[in-house]
Amino acid sequence: MTPSTQASTTAKRRIDMAALLAWFIVAMVIAGLIFPIFKPDLGVMDVPRLSVCLVILAIAGVRYELGFMRNRIGDVVLGLVTAVAAWLLIATASNHAGDAKAGFWALTAATWASAWLFVERLATWKVGSPFARRLVNLAIPAIFGITLLVIWQIVVTGAGVPKVLLPAPSEIWLRLTSSVPTLWADFRQTFLKAVLAGYVIGCGSAFFVAILVDRIPFLRRGLLPVGNLVSALPIIGVAPIMVMWFGFDWPSKAAVVIIMTFFPMLVNTVSGLAASHAMQRDLMRTYASSYWQTLFKLRLPMAMPFIFNALKINSTLALIGAIVAEFFGTPIVGMGFRISTEVGRMNVDMVWAEIAVAALAGSLFYGAVALLERAVTFWHPSIRG
Amino acid sequence: MTDTALTPSRSSLNPFSGLFSGTVGPVIVVVAAILAIWYIAAVALNTPFQEELYKRADLTDVPISQLVTDTLAQERPVLPAPHQVIVEIWNTTVEKKITSKRSLVYHSGITLSSTLLGFLIGTTLGILLAVGIVHSQVLDKSLMPWVISSQTIPILAIAPMIIVVLNAVGISGLLPKAMISTYLSFFPVTVGMVKGLRSPEIMHMDLMHTYSASRLQTFWKLRLPYAVPYLFTSMKIGMAASLVGAIVGELPTGAVAGLGARLLAGSYYGQTVQIWSALIMAAILAGTLVALIGLLETLTLKRMGMVR
Q1: Tally of CA atoms within 13 A in the half-sphere of B270 that contains its CB
Q2: Residue B174 and residue B45 share a domain
Q3: Do B277 and B167 lie in a common domain?
Q4: Are residues B116 and B243 in the same domain?
Q5: A176-384: CATH, from 2.70.70.10, 3.30.830.10, 1.10.3720.10, 3.90.1640.10
Q6: In this complex, do B153 and A294 lie within 8 Å of one another by their Cβ atoms?
Q7: CB contact under 8 A, B141 and A123
Q8: Residue A144 and residue A150: Cα distance in Å, rounded?
Q9: Who wins on pLDDT, A231 or B233?
Q10: For residue A373, what pLDDT is reported?
Q11: Residue B173 CB contacts under 8 Å (≥ 6 apart), including other chains
Q12: Strand, helix or coil for residue A42
């Protein structure tokens, strides 16, 4: 959002979200006071830890409503109160698993609202130094993610959701830490062998084909529409065929990854190579530069944003391709294999641990490509800011 | 482009230059080339098995022409020839009754319905999220990074679990599959719509401001019309992703029905022709759906006077 539109929207804001949230906290605290907390008719005063939680939340909510300490110190205190309240709720919920009643949910809602209020306040901070600003900008999504995890934990333990349906984050973490060797073996089989090999071969070959296609205008006109069409097709369907051709081990998965990554890379590189302006190409011609000089000094650098766009898309596609290909047949190792067998055995926490590994690997892979992009296309307006 | 500009004489020497200067000619050539490569690959890949058959039947000195026709007519070839796939698709769509379990139309219909349901929910969710993100700074800062990182998670990996778990709770049928489609299709719509809703220039926003327009009026009269082209572009991506989600969602249900189930059943029993026909059918489905959105886009933009 540009600064001027931002200013106009904040000026026009009719609903004061922060005040609304504070009122909500107070209302929920009162509800927590009235309704029973846990099943055999326990009130909030019967559970000391929850009464502490209720009191601090009440103070935080009322403080904001009264306009007392509406500054950074107050905001930090609000954050601390939220953290303590969340910890108290988690600790109590594990002792009364599955017994939660309306009062408990009211307190959970109050904690959630105070986390939201904290983020809302954090977003309005005007921080001077760029480092601190980055820190705040990182903290906001991080707090959002942590809040989601905390709510997940509280709801699953509080409502006693069966483990088969949805395990709590703490259980997943336990399983994750206790089965590191298995997870590492799966990761090596799927990611280090299939995904990386397929990604490098697929993107690399597409890159060279793109340069070849760009050299021959006839091929470019013919291949580009076909490539665009193929990018929209459910290519993942070739997985069973590849498994049939290349056997159960990782080469078949790498083949799926190659096919999946090839066309996005081809289409993006070809359109990237056409991205340089006529003026720039004319300049290169006045320098009497050869085709290769123009390619390396002008057109490839200009194509880099497009190429990295494809590399980023492909980093996600590659992981998906390898995992789904494993559903069609694998040796007894691999992330896709583990997921499909553990689902069958109803070991859902293991499945979630595997998903956490996959998510981490996918995010790191994407992050690595994005970092590389920043380093290579440092001149691009979107990076320079 | 530089090449053609530098050597104008080369193209004029070519007698076919007029025919192939547009897009249609090259595309036809490329498609024909793909088909030719397909046939050659089919012969090459099926030859070992065919020679094995000849050896067993004690046939020696089989003429090449016989070998080629035989490799293209195997029942379970390593790579079926295009005409075999076309015959299979013809047999399973036109010759079979639609209600038959072996009809490809029946399976496509099941995949199509969950694709469309997922796409519908995903697009709605995506638009709502985008509206929230554009209008709230907190949502922008806290939600947007998660929307982006949600796609680095290989969500299709969770597909079997979502299906099995929801089955265990008693929710089965269309909805679990549609949920996977939803997850895959909401992302492009959210990102595209955020971009689109922010695309009005500052001048236009300021103009609305001078009219003392409320945020709702600004949204309906300025932001939304500006976002429509972006919406259609991202809907095309979302539709393709949604179909992938539906197909993968059909894998873990144990090959009951749908194109994904056809793929799985085909790979279990080595029915390559069946796999390829399901694959081509999925491709046709994807192409048709995306083309339909494209048509809708042209009509809408023409009606709005925004054809670019």
Answers
A1: 7
A2: no
A3: yes
A4: yes
A5: 1.10.3720.10
A6: no
A7: yes
A8: 10
A9: B233
A10: 87
A11: none
A12: strand
**pTM listed for this prediction:** 0.78
- Contact state of B206 with A120 under an 8 Å Cβ cutoff: no
Q: Long-range contacts made by residues A75-82, C-beta under 8 angstroms, separation at least 24?
A: A75/A118, A75/A121, A75/A122, A75/A125, A78/A114, A78/A117, A78/A118, A78/A121, A79/A118, A79/A122, A79/A143, A81/A56, A81/A57, A81/A114, A82/A111, A82/A114, A82/A115, A82/A118
Dig out the tokens for B211 from the structure: 């009219």
Q: Which amino acid does the sequence have at B193?
A: M
- Evaluate whether residue B290 is within a structural domain: yes
Residues B172 and B260 in one domain: yes
Which one of A230, A324, A351, A352 makes the best mutation probe of the B interface by having the most chain B beta carbons within 10 Å? A324
Question: B87 lies in a domain?
Answer: no
Would you give per-residue pLDDT tens digits along chain A (385 residues)?
A: 444 444 444 444 556 777 888 888 888 888 887 887 777 777 777 777 777 778 888 888 888 777 777 777 888 888 888 888 888 888 887 777 777 778 888 888 888 888 888 888 887 777 778 888 888 888 888 888 888 888 888 888 888 777 777 888 888 898 888 888 888 988 888 888 889 999 999 999 999 999 988 888 888 888 878 887 787 777 777 888 888 888 888 888 899 899 888 988 988 888 888 888 888 889 999 999 998 998 888 889 888 888 988 898 888 888 888 888 887 777 888 888 888 788 778 788 888 888 888 888 888 888 899 889 888 888 777 666 5
Could A234 and B282 be called an inter-chain contact, meaning their C-beta atoms sit closer than 8 Å?
Answer: yes
The domain in which residue B51 lies consists of 2-79
Closest CA to A237 of B35, B85, B165: B85
A 75-94 near B (Cβ less than 8 A)? none
Q: Look up residue B186 and give its two tokens.
A: 């909401």
What CATH number corresponds to the domain at position B295?
Answer: 1.10.3720.10
- Report yes or no: B212 at the A interface, CB cutoff 8 Å: no
Are A340 and B272 within 8 A, CB to CB? no
Of residues A137, A144, A222, nearest to B30 (C-beta): A222
